[in-house]
Design goal:
Layout: E1 14-15, H1 22-25, H2 28-40, E2 45-47, H3 56-68, E3 74-79, H4 89-104, E4 109-114, E5 118-119, E6 127-128, H5 129-145, E7 149-155, H6 160-168, E8 174-178, H7 202-209, E9 212-216, H8 247-255, H9 259-262, H10 269-277, E10 283-286, H11 293-304, H12 310-320
Parallel strand pairs: 1-2, 2-3, 3-4, 4-7, 5-6, 7-8, 8-9, 9-10
Helix pairs in contact: 2-3, 2-11, 3-4, 4-5, 6-7, 10-11
Length: about 325
C-alpha cells in the first residue's frame, strides 16, 4: 500500500526522466517497446515532469499510453516554480498542471508533485516551508477539488529540517526520496564525518504521516553502475542529490562497492543498488533511469530477485564506513 492513499503501486515504477532519457530522446519504437514490457510485467506507476525535455516526456508518455489503453496505470507529474514566479505561485501551479494534462492528453493525473527544493527560508530556486504550506498546498488542494489530481506530493530535496516539517504537516500524500547505497540516511543514521547529506531518518517521518515514498536517485544518476560510460540517449552526468558534491566523487565511491559483486552478492553493481533500494519497508515504488529497453529489462530482473540479504547489507556497511572523513 502506498502510504495512506489506498494506491497499490508496483515495486518498480517507470521513470520517464531526462537523465536516462528514453522517454525524452529515445525512438518512438523503443518507447513503445519499453512501456509495453512494463505493462506486461505489472508495472503500474509512470513518473514524468514538464521539466523532462521541456514537455517531451509527458507528450511521449501520453502517446504511448493512449496506444496501449492500460487498465490501472497511475501517472504522476510535477511542477517547478521558478524564482521569477514566486509572486504568483497559485497561478503557476494551475497553468503547469493544465499544460501537463494537455501534453498527456488526460483529464487528471494520480499524483502531482512539487519539483522544487524545500528549504527553511527559501531563496533562489528553492521554496521556503511557509511558501509550500501557505501557498503551494492550497493551490494543489484546489486542483484536487477540481478533479485534476488525486494526490499531492513533494520532491524531498532541500534542507533536512524543512523536509521533516513539510512531511510532518500531513499536507502531502507522496514524497520522492533520494535513497541509495551512497546515502542511506533516510533510513539509517550516518556516522560523523560521512560525506553526504543526513536526511535524518526521513522514512520515520513518512511512515508516521502516512506518506507514500517514491525512491529516486536509486543509481545516483548512473554513478552506481560503476561505469563512466553513458549511452548517447542519456544526459551528461547531472549534479548529485544528497551524496557527494561532484558526480566523479560518487562514481569513485561507487566503484569501491564492487566487492558486493566480486563476492557474489549481486551480478552487477547496478543490480545491487536496485535491490538495496527495495529493502526498506517504507519504500512504495522506485524509479530507475533508463536509456534503452535493455536497461529497463535489467532493472526489472533485479527487482524480481528481491531485496539484498542481510549479509550483503552488512558488507555494504563495512565498505561505506571507509568513506568517513572524506571530503564530500
Amino acid at each position: 500500500m502506498f502510504g495512506r492513499t489506498g494506491l497499490r503501486l508496483s515495486v518498480l515504477g517507470f521513470g520517464c526522466g531526462a537523465v536516462g532519457g528514453l522517454m525524452v530522446r529515445g525512438s518512438a519504437a523503443d518507447q513503445d517497446r519499453a512501456v509495453g514490457k512494463a505493462l506486461d510485467a505489472g508495472i503500474n506507476y509512470f513518473d514524468t515532469a514538464v521539466q523532462y525535455g521541456n514537455g517531451a516526456s509527458e507528450t511521449n508518455l501520453g502517446r504511448v499510453l493512449r496506444g496501449f489503453r492500460p487498465d490501472g496505470a497511475q501517472v504522476g507529474t510535477k511542477v517547478r516554480i521558478s524564482s521569477t514566479d514566486v509572486s504568483r505561485i497559485a497561478a503557476v501551479v494551475t497553468e503547469s498542471l493544465d499544460g501537463s494534462l494537455r501534453r498527456l492528453a488526460m483529464d487528471h493525473v494520480d499524483i502531482f508533485h512539487l519539483h522544487n527544493e524545500i528549504t527553511v527560508n527559501g531563496g533562489g530556486e528553492s521554496l521556503s516551508v511557509a511558501q509550500v504550506l501557505d501557498q503551494v498546498v492550497p493551490a494543489f488542494q484546489a486542483l484536487r477539488q477540481a478533479g485534476k489530481t488525486r494526490f499531492l506530493g513533494i520532491t524531498a530535496i532541500g534542507d533536512t529540517a524543512a523536509l521533516h516539517q513539510v512531511v510532518d504537516s500531513g499536507a502531502f500524500d507522496s514524497a520522492q526520496v533520494s535513497y541509495n547505497m551512497l546515502n542511506p540516511s533516510a533510513a539509517t543514521p550516518l556516522p560523523p564525518g560521512y560525506p553526504a547529506q543526513d536526511y535524518g531518518h526521513l522514512f520515520d517521518h513518512t511512515q508516521k504521516a502516512g506518506v507514500g515514498v517514491v525512491g529516486i536517485r536509486v543509481l545516483a544518476a548512473g554513478a552506481l553502475s560503476g561505469s563512466a560510460e553513458r549511452h548517447p540517449t542519456a544526459s551528461p552526468p547531472p549534479a548529485p542529490i544528497g551524496s557527494a558534491y561532484s558526480y566523479s566523487s560518487d562514481l569513485d565511491r561507487a566503484r569501491r562497492l564492487m566487492p558486493l559483486v566480486t563476492e557474489g552478492f549481486a551480478a552487477s553493481l547496478a543490480e545491487a543498488a536496485i535491490r538495496f533500494a527495495i529493502t526498506h519497508k517504507a519504500m512504495g515504488t522506485i524509479l530507475v533511469g533508463m536509456a534503452t529497453v535493455q536497461e529497463f529489462e535489467g532493472s526489472l530482473a533485479a527487482v524480481l530477485k528481491g531485496p539484498l540479504p542481510r549479509a550483503a547489507l552488512d558488507r555494504l556497511n563495512a565498505l561505506t564506513s571507509g568513506f568517513v572523513g572524506e571530503q564530500r
